[in-house]
Amino acid sequence: SPLWTLVGLIALTMVIIKYFPLITRAIPSTLAAILVVSALVIGLDLDTRTVGDVASIGGGFPSFHIPEVPLTLETLWIILPYAFILAAIGLIESLLTMTLIDELTQTRGRGNKECIGQGVANTVTGMFGGMGGCAMIGQSMINVNSGGRGRLSGISAALFLLLFILAASPLIEMIPLAALVGVMFIVVIGTFEWSSFRILKKIPKSDAFVLILVSGVTVVTDLAIAVIVGVIVSALVFAWKHAKNIAVVEKMTEKGTKIYELNGPLFFSSVHNFGNLFTPEKDPDEVIIDFKNSRVYDHSAIEAIDSLAERYLKLNKKLHLVHLTPECKLLLSKAGDLVEVNVIEDPQYHIADDKLA
User: What's residue 344's pLDDT?
Assistant: First the structure.
């Protein structure tokens, strides 16, 4: 039946790709597999679908053409969402491909150049009526597994593709789809991180959840949305974990001054626990809060410090805030005068606050 013929040809393609390098590496195994399976289908007149049954790839040189659309804001708002999604998907997949190839070849790509080059190329392509594109993991894996390493392999692929479209389209349309499916199966098997199944039980449950979630969203929607969802969920998990990582070490000086040494990040998720760490009613008349081992990240943290200072001031107790940045002093409306400046020891970092904009 056609189904079993298809399965058999796919299996044959995969076997040839797997074992042909044991015979010779002069010819890429993927090319050898496609040629052998194509010759077998044509020679035995097997009933299976070919590239020509799906679409024609024949064509000629495109002509320069600027899209005739109204240059208005209304047109921009129609185009913008699709442009943003396609650009995000293209850039993400290109950078993922570059990272994978860097690992395989022990090299280091230049992501900025890749992104700029891709943007320029897609802009020029659109002027000739073409579709946008990006680096693809599948084709890149085939290239690397076939021995390609430098720019020559990519340029050769583009030139041969042009040659096939202009002069050899009838030959390409005779290639069985089963051969191409077999090639892609080999690429998938070689690309997939099988070790991820083993580490699922070893990594934190939150990381495993994000990994599975992003994989599922990628299949259901697209890569751009999956990455956005993954970043949001990871940020929420990070905030949840670090909300509990704030604590104080209490000390008393010989003069009866109480020192709170704060440890951990202070931001929107940890401000509730921050307020519960102090007992103004039970503290002595003079208190020092040391932020040397902490960082103030956002406006919620600033408000929490202000609220704590107000609690001490209402009890007529003297509060000192040490090792805060100049930005903290500027943003603290009620506790700004309580910040003691030490130019040598005070840290320097920025706070996410709209008032600084």
Answer: 44
What predicted TM-score, i.e. pTM, was given to this entire model?
0.58
Note the pLDDT tens digit of each residue in 173-207.
Answer: 889 999 999 998 988 887 777 777 777 778 888 88
Q: Where are the domains of the chain?
A: 195-240, 247-356
Q: Can you give the chain as a three-state secondary structure string? A: CHHHHHHHHHHHHHHHHHHHHHCCCCCCHHHHHHHHHHHHHHHHCCCCCEHHHHCCCCCCCCCCCCCCCCCCHHHHHHHHHHHHHHHHHHHHHHHHHHHHHHHHHCCCCCHHHHHHHHHHHHHHHHHCCCCCCCCCHHHHHHHHHCCCCCHHHHHHHHHHHHHHHHHCHHHHCCCEHHHHHHHHHHHHHHHCCCHHHHHCCCCCHHHHHHHHHHHHHHHHCCHHHHHHHHHHHHHHHHHHHHCCCCEEEEEECCCCCEEEEEEEEECCCCHHHHHCCCCCCCCCCEEEEEEEEEEECEHHHHHHHHHHHHHHHHCCCEEEEECCCHHHHHHCCCCHHHEECCCCCCCCCCCECHHHC
pLDDT tens readout for residues 108-126? 888 888 889 889 998 888 8
247-356: CATH class = alpha beta
Answer whether residue 58 shows pLDDT above 90.
no
